[in-house]
Design a protein that fits this description.
This protein is α+β, with helices and mostly antiparallel strands. The protein has helices at residues 2-24, 26-80, 88-103, 139-148, 190-240, 255-311, 318-349, 361-379, 398-415, 474-484, 548-558; strands at 112-118, 127-128, 150-156, 166-176, 179-188, 357-360, 383-386, 393-396, 421-427, 431-437, 488-492, 501-507.
Length: 559
């Protein structure tokens, strides 16, 4: 079995390059298919042609042989008419002379040998020329000659020259005054076989040349078509890579030239639209950045006044006290949105600076869990952590990674419907992977690709509880922070009722790309509702509740 597998692997390695060329090259496929179909046609035509030539050769051979037999029968009648039946020896001698004379004649039917078989034994055995064995003449042919007077058959004959096994045997019955005799002509087929062999070689060589010529023509013609297509594919790849000034060459006015012209117009239109969109995006980012910065001063003033009102709410009438609390809460939300806008503006402007340092990821995970513990408790969600027993060290910016985890955990709490939330950490010397899983409604089909879009929400009507995450920028900022670390952030939620899972992948060493994620994106219990991990660690200890001003201060500092 091992030998068979090794042989199959060897065959696979040998076939891999031609298979790869076959799949990638339209020109090779067209030339090969054309050659194959041409070969089939040539073989079919060759078979029909050789069959027709062979049939005509045999028909000509038969006509010439029958004509020779008729002529020889007349000669036999003339010579046997001078012999008396009273002298058996004279008859035997005459029969031998007739056989020799007939076989020695020049003939259009080619080389042949003669065998004369008398009816009466008194005239001795059959007379024959050459080494032909009269006993190998088929009995069916002898019977047909006795019955009809003339017959012929292709049959194997003993005594033929070397290299020949069968011959055309023509038999005729001679009725003379001295008795009846069967005259058999054994015609060699050597010339016909040689002629047919020459025709076969000619047809084979001509067919091979024709197939190669047709394949070459197909390759050349296909190249004329595939060349511009390949050039267009290369130009399209360069356009996709951002080289918007690339264009196809236009030669002539044929269909390919019109295709190149249309492609160039499309590329020009796309380049113009992309340029306009880039300019619009720059204006939009500049506007967002300017507005965010301009709003900080009035917001700070409003915050100072709101803090005074909030601190004095105990001495205010009940209605005014409630108004002060609402004002404080809305200012918290507004400051969170403003901080998110400033952060995303810095990412867009490329002004974000990464400050990596060797950090134990377990501590980052625990701190992030502590930061949202109070929020999780308010909705009844239990956060369960599962981490390695040894420290997982990675060179990261702790503040940004902690923000990613807080955003993911806040999102899980918001959409988890009060169910348990699992956060799992895994790491090696190259890669660190963290997953956050909730047991909420999950995403609708196709929404997993949009969760990182700015200001996008799966359910805009849902009441929000997570403070800064309500801006709609939390996951977008998290994705930018992950990319800033040369890592990635993925989302899964394609099964209704199975919740959602986010996976953060980071390099263990700054500047070195991470390897493959160490944890699967799709949870292991998908398809088995209600099943939870038996290895889940107990919930992390919850941090004590913070008052509003302390929570605000830490939120703003973390951003």
């Amino acid at each position: 079995m091992n030998k068979v597998r090794a042989a199959l692997r060897t065959i696979g390695r040998l076939l891999a390059p031609p298979v790869r060329v076959w799949r990638r090259s339209l020109q090779v496929r067209v030339a090969a298919i054309t050659a194959l179909t041409s070969a089939i046609v040539v073989v079919a035509v060759g078979i029909v042609l050789l069959d027709q030539i062979g049939s005509k050769l045999m028909e000509g051979k038969q006509r010439a042989a029958l004509a020779e037999a008729d002529n020889g029968l007349r000669i036999a009648y003339e010579q046997m008419g001078t012999v008396s039946s009273d002298s058996p020896d004279a008859v035997k001698q005459a029969l031998g002379s007739v056989a020799t004379n007939l076989a020695g004649k020049a003939s259009n039917a080619g080389v042949f040998w003669v065998t004369i078989v008398p009816d009466s034994s008194r005239y001795g055995p059959a007379q024959h020329t050459g080494d032909i064995d009269p006993s190998t003449i088929p009995k069916a042919l002898r019977t047909a000659v006795d019955t009809t007077g003339r017959a012929y058959q292709y049959a194997p004959i003993t005594g033929l020259p070397s290299g020949q096994s069968s011959a055309l045997v023509v038999g005729e019955r001679a009725l003379t005054a001295v008795g009846n005799f069967d005259v058999f002509y054994v015609f060699s087929l050597q010339n016909e076989r040689q002629t047919l062999s020459v025709v076969q070689r000619t047809v084979s060589v001509a067919g091979l040349v024709l197939v190669l010529l047709v394949a070459a023509i197909a390759a050349v013609v296909t190249r004329l078509v595939v060349g511009p297509v390949r050039h267009g594919a290369r130009i399209a790849e360069r356009l996709a890579a951002g080289h918007l000034d690339e264009r196809m060459r236009v030669h002539g006015t044929d269909d390919l030239a019109r295709l190149a012209t249309s492609f160039n117009r499309m590329a020009g239109s796309m380049a113009q639209q992309i340029t306009e969109l880039e300019e619009l995006s720059v204006l939009q980012r500049r506007f967002t950045s300017d507005v965010s910065h301009e709003l900080r001063t009035p917001v700070t003033t409003v915050r100072m006044a709101a803090d005074v009102l909030y601190a004095e709410r105990g001495r205010l009438p009940k209605g005014l006290a409630r108004t002060a609390e609402l004002l404080q809460a809305e200012l918290d939300r507004f400051e969170g949105l403003l901080a998110d806008l400033l952060e995303i503006s810095r990412h867009d402007a490329g002004a974000v600076e990464l400050l990596p340092e060797a950090t134990d990821m377990s501590l980052v995970v625990r701190d992030s869990v502590d930061a949202v513990a109070t929020l999780a408790a308010s909705v009844g969600s239990e956060i369960r952590t599962r981490m390695p027993g040894t420290p997982v060290i990675a060179e990261i910016d702790p503040r940004r990674i902690a923000r990613i985890l807080r955003n993911l955990l806040s999102n899980a709490i918001e959409h988890g419907n009060g169910g348990p939330i699992d956060i799992v950490l895994a790491g090696d010397d190259r890669t660190v992977t963290i997953t956050v899983r909730d047991r909420g409604a999950g995403f609708r089909p196709g929404d997993a690709d949009r969760v990182f879009d700015r200001f996008w929400r799966a359910d805009p009507a849902r009441r929000r509880r997570t403070g800064g995450a309500s801006s709609g920028l939390g996951l977008a900022i998290s994705l930018e922070d992950a990319r800033l670390h040369s890592g990635g952030l993925d989302a899964w939620g394609g099964r209704p009722g199975m919740g959602a899972q986010f996976r953060l992948t980071l390099p263990a060493r700054a500047g070195i790309p991470p390897g493959d994620p160490l944890l699967p994106l799709i949870p292991a219990d998908v398809g088995r509702p209600g099943l939870q991990s038996a290895r889940a660690a107990p919930a992390a200890p919850r941090a004590p509740a913070e008052d509003g001003s302390a929570a605000r201060a830490r939120e703003v500092e973390s951003r």
